[in-house]
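Summary of Year 1 activities. Much of the first year was spent building the evaluation harness for sequence design. The harness presents a backbone, in tokenized form, and records the residue chosen at every position. We chose the following record to illustrate the format because it has been used consistently in internal testing since the harness was completed.
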């Protein structure tokens, strides 16, 4: 039996798949980054598993996270989604997703890609943290505070330091798998096959 992170509820098969197949793997493509930002902002104040169970519904509601299409959504779309029980029916969060899509595109236009902008906060390479016990988990970091502050300055909503840190964990900017977790070293080994240098050009 594989040893996995202490935080993981291993009674939930979908949670195990997310942990094993996605969490902490570096993400360099903008569409996936927009998906993760959308889901994390929806999660604010709720459990991540609540959003994970609704992921397919969010994919459908927000055009498979096509940022250009989401940026064009309007008040009619907001009203429609407020009647959609398969997602979190929070008007401010729905509006924030549309707003964040527009801010996301502004960053793409400025930096060439959102990935290039985002990964600059860790100098274009993942931070590997020492996680030996539950006491080693952190909810935010100096980097997530700076990242969240800059996102706020650029108009993003529902992305404070804690939510941004969760985003950083999810997309591999930080490797917060437990030291004993079988995925930690596997993901580290994968770094040599990941073209982080391409982000700098």
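For this record, the design step produced the sequence shown next.
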């Amino acid at each position: 039996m594989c040893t996995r992170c202490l935080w993981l509820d291993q009674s939930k098969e979908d949670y195990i798949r997310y942990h094993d197949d996605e969490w902490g793997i570096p993400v360099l493509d903008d569409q996936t980054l927009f998906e993760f930002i959308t889901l994390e902002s929806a999660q604010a104040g709720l459990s991540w598993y609540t959003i994970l169970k609704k992921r397919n519904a969010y994919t459908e509601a927000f055009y498979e996270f096509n940022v250009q299409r989401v940026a064009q959504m309007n008040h009619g779309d907001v009203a429609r989604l407020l009647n959609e029980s398969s997602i979190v029916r929070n008007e401010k969060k729905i509006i924030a997703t549309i707003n964040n899509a527009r801010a996301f595109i502004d960053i793409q236009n400025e930096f060439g890609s959102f990935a290039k902008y985002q990964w600059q906060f860790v100098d274009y390479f993942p931070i590997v943290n020492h996680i030996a016990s539950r006491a080693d988990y952190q909810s935010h970091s100096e980097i997530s505070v700076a990242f969240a502050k800059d996102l706020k300055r650029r108009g993003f909503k529902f992305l404070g330091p804690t939510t941004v840190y969760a985003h950083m964990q999810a997309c591999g900017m930080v490797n917060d798998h437990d030291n004993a977790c079988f995925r930690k070293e596997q993901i580290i080994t994968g770094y040599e096959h990941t073209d982080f240098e391409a982000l700098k050009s």
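The radius of gyration is 17 Å. Quantitative recovery figures across the full test set are reported in Table 2.
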